[in-house]
Amino acid sequence: MVLRKLPGVSASGMGLRLSQKFVFLLFLSGLVTLCFGALFFLPDTVRLNRKPSVTHGARTVERSVGSRAQEEWSPARAQEPAARDERVTSAAHNGERGSAYSYEAFKTCLLKPALGKNQGTPPDSETLQRREKVKEMMKFAWDNYKRYAWGNNELRPLTRNGHLGNMFGGLRGASIVDSLDTLYIMGLMEEYEEAKEWVQNNLDLNSNGEASLFEVNIRYVGGLLSAYYLTGAEIFKQKVMELGEKLLPAFNTPTGIPRGVINLGSGTSWSWGWASAGSSILAEFGTLHLEFLHLSQLSGNPLFTEKVMNIRKLLNKIEKPHGLYPNFLSPVSGNWVQHHVSIGGLGDSFYEYLIKSYLMSDKTDQEAQKMYYSAMEAIETNLVQKSPGGLTYLAEWRGGILDHKMGHLACFSGGMIGIGADDGPAGQRQHYLDLAAEITHTCHESYSPTKLGPEAFRFDAGAEATATRLSDRYYILRPEVIESYMYMWRLTHDPKYREWGWEAVEALEKHCRVDAGFSGIRDVYASTVSHDNMQQSFFLSETLKYLYLLFSDDDLLPLEDWVFNTEAHPLPVIRFLKIASSDRFHDCSAV
What we know:
single chain, 591 residues, three-stranded antiparallel β-sheet
């Protein structure tokens, strides 16, 4: 390199200045690198306003927030009218979030009153009497929980005390939160007010224990969201937003796939010890979408939606064996860990949330629609079987080998396939309704001489919908069969579904009702009943709610407006309305 000598400047002086310039430039470049690099290591809550991409169903929203590009999002700011340019892309239309969420505006989004014209009262006296019986069962279960286990998570009715368990990370009152919407829907207003008061004064979210992300989401987040949408009580909104924030650290993994267990105090998360190779479970990370979209809806914070859309993005990218979704996925590598496929435990509600995401988007989430019907095609090709006795069932798939077993948890699929019948491939509606009816019939047949069903039943070695193992013979007040009865009644109005539901009511009364509540039983085939001493919170949230709806008119929580999460908490359809003299749409729940 040749240095030109400048007039009046010595060589030594010039060398000194060049050295200074070099040091200054080196310092400046390091500073710039540090500043830009820092942006990529800031926490999500600081970065989320850096022009995030937010997907509402099939709509993708790009937000440009001008001078606020690097400001931290806050709930207060979410209430301010936002001066921003939004572009929403959809195959159907363009839409925009609008400004602050309004409960009054939300109510105008509903096509029908949530509780119907007359609280869903059926016109015939027999159905009304049956509905009143279910309401009495709910009050009996609630009164005994209040008397013996108030503030605990569940009631032990034989020993008349409470049970906390280890699923909820120190959170208490699971039966209270799970019961809020059931009490309200049934018109048990004194009991509902008791539950609301407990949530306001005693639901402490500052716990410091290990919690199941899945269970906390479907029971607490789902229960609080539903209670808010049905009643408009702000305390439910405040609590659910606080709890939702506490779940976000579970997504801090290399892939964004959340781990199954989280400490709600520290934010530390890890996988279940029994999960293969530290994997996450399909039915757990795949059962967040409905609730998290509503958390974004209420708060204006797109981060909740971004988290679950990232899960969907990864699932669409990776290869699926024979089009099937295995139950175990590594949150580190993003690869399947085992090729075990089940529509029952470990897999079930993932598929449920695909079709319900589509329905909750007012049928605009075309990606969810495509994923669901592609999964259904693979399920029909690989898992749907017919027994020698003519029963249709869903086998499990283990690396290409079928296990001819169906779990009670898989019996929700009759209702799932039924509600998805209208929007599949052309000409397939009746096929799906027939398949839904066949599976629901099989699950009814699995209900033993006690008219209660085992945890799992088999179709091999001469067995027809029968539990052949002692360890599969228990019944813990599960709702899935009754859930399918309710959906199939709404879709077909075939009276057999109400008759089957009444059989279940009589069986619950005969075999599960004890002096201080309801209890599961250890063997559905035994002539002498042995109780397990547990009144599960989902019995109040799901089993009794689905029975009550089965014996109600269809305008009580109409399916055009409401989608039930996997704990039977109703969440409203998210609608966008067309702006006059424009091709744009806005969220009708925003002001």
